[in-house]
Amino acid sequence: MSKARLLQQIIDKLEADLALLSGAARAAHAAATDTECQPDNKYDTTALEASYVAQGQANRAAQIRTALATYRSMNLRSFNNETPIRLGALVTLENDAGEMTRVFLGPEAGGLKLATEAGEVVVVTPAAPLGRELLGKTVGDDLETAGGKTYSVVAVE
Q1: 39 to each of 12, 42, 48, 97, how far by Cα in Å?
Q2: Strands 142-144 and 150-156, how do they pair?
């Protein structure tokens, strides 16, 4: 899979998440301001709770908008075996048991999982422990995560 295609898949996923979340935020806002949600007494917090949900969803939508803008303006770099890993690298890692894991070092949306024809790719950011460990490594380097897992960098695209 090309990184350009992977980047487009990230953008598509974030756009779908944004559309879903925006609709949910509008529905929660409508519920919070609906006349049936108005408090019957001082202990009725239904409208207040609905407004908290609406605000949380609006905040998450804003985070996704920021991630979308970042990915849309991202320039993909080429990497080889000697190029230090940095943002935009698609990295294949091998653990002690010989299992392969593919991660894309991205600026936002850490934890996003993408199904590709070559297998699953997980977006990791430099803020994550694995992302911090990957920065500056090259093919052949080993790294250990905070959880005690050891990986070898076997490929960087």
Answers
A1: 40, 7, 9, 58
A2: antiparallel
Backbone angles phi, psi at 93, to 5 degrees: -115, 150
Cα–Cα distances in angstroms (integers) from residue 7 to residues 10, 125, 137, in the given order: 5, 14, 22
DSSP string, 60-88: HHHHHHHHHHHHHTPPPPP--TTSPP-TT
Helix 3-33, helix 46-72: angle, nearest 10: 160
- 9, 66: one domain: yes
3-state secondary structure of 50: helix
156/139 Cα distance (integer angstroms): 7
pTM of the model: 0.84
49-100: pLDDT as tens digits: 777 887 888 888 999 999 999 999 999 999 999 999 999 999 999 998 999 9
Instruction: Give the residue from 38, 72, 106 where a domain finishes.
Output: 72
Q: How far apart are CA 94 and CA 152, in angstroms?
A: 5
Domain containing 40: what range? Answer: 3-72
**Cβ-proximal residues to 149 (8 Å cutoff; 6+ apart), any chain:** 95
